[in-house]
Amino acid sequence: MSWRPQYRSSKFRNVYGKAASREHCFDGIPITKNVHDNHFCAVNARFLAIVTESAGGGSFLVIPLEQTGRIEPNYPKVCGHQGNVLDIKWNPFIENIIASCSEDTSVRIWEIPEGGLKRNMTEAVLELYGHSRRVGLVEWHPTTNNILFSAGYDYKVLIWNLEVGEPVKMIDCHTDVILCLSFNADGSLVATTCKDKRLRVLEPRSGRVLQEASCKNHRVNRVVFLGSTKRLLTTGVSRWNTRQIALWDQEDLSMPLIEEEIDGLSGLLFPFYDADTHMLYLAGKGDGNIRYYEIGSEKPYLSYLMEFRSPAPQKGLGVMPKHGLDVSACEVFRFYKLITLKGLIEPISMIVPRRSETYQEDIYPMTPGTEPALTPDEWLSGVNRDPILMSLKEGYKRNSKIVFKAPVREKKSVVVNGIDLLENVPPRTENEV
Question: Where is the DUF1899 domain (predicted)?
Fold first, then answer.
């Protein structure tokens, strides 16, 4: 039998990246010089938030998306933290609520006024104290309103119920600094990577470790759940210090399904997964390229599509939620690239080339919308529900009716699982910078 090459038909084979013109970029922004491995950028359908360089305390800018061009040096900031801001994330269900965490050990919730800031904002609607060290990560629960996860340099993950303003659960199984958190589609599982070179899959409400991988050949940095495929993808470094990715079965982390070397550069690889198109994007910190792949259910699992190239190195990338994309231009993904050298934020659109002007049903399936599927009490009692889906056909016009109400409370000791978190501080380690 003669050998024939295998041809794969894919509607995303010709996806290309298109950088916005200079007048559609955000210019003159003093992007933070902090070396913490985060994106320092968060974006939703209305606002762009960027962590900035500031003297004495930490601050970030919040800019309405339509306000492109040069940003004035005295543009108002959110500046209530006493230490550098390390991570910011928009609430997926309430568009003007943003969470930030900082070296000052606090997590804060901010309510951005309609139309953006007119003056500096120093008062958060909610201040959350529970970590005894700096807080490096915040992450909103994907299907439940008012549930926030934070990970600190005290090796703990706290789960906050913002309706009461208290930590309601503590995950205390890590032995070093937590590098990354990722949820599966319904938020019933969370995967973490840690400086102790272990990849863990946890049940967040009980804190139980369901699966654990000790990565000897593949030092994991970042992890992402691949939608509802029951698979995980990690980026990391091989024993020869080359950048690589690995694909795992979430129910068996004994061996990766595949490991693939990417290149010999040193910057961290950030993975982004789009469950609607089954596309994976890999962007290296400090280089200007974004590679993209299609993920299949059968071997070889990963099919390389193309690469967006740019000479300007990226410090981090914000990602627009699906309902903020331009469906008339067949845009399937949009990055907001932080270019520190120029003080520039550059939108990059991933576009499927199509001639037709009509709505492309096949590249825009029903996607998770802006309505929460659960209340905090339902989720904490053990209920899991898939996200409520929305169609992008009519264009996103519906404003969420949910309003954030901050609880009134006094500062006191923070006791979770019978332990006062602010009293029990782990010893300092050499890993703590």
Answer: 5-69
